[in-house]
Amino acid sequence: MSDELQDRITELEIRFSHQAQLVDELNEVVTDCNRRIDRLGRDNLRLREMISTMSPALEESPDE
Prior knowledge:
Structural class: mainly alpha
Distance between the termini: 78 Å
Number of helices: 1
Number of strands: 0
Order of helices and strands: H
Radius of gyration: 26 Å
Low-confidence stretches: none
Helix content: over 70%
Largest sheet: none
Shape: rod-shaped
């Protein structure tokens, strides 16, 4: 195998390793965001339930 071809293969291997690492890091970020979104959704639901039990007769928002 020529030195030029070996250098190209080595460069591709390095790039692949870096891209694989980036994909892993991005996966961690996406997973963390999904956990946060789920938690915020649950918090939002609890707050809506609390508000509805505090003022069940309120049909319109106070600003209207």
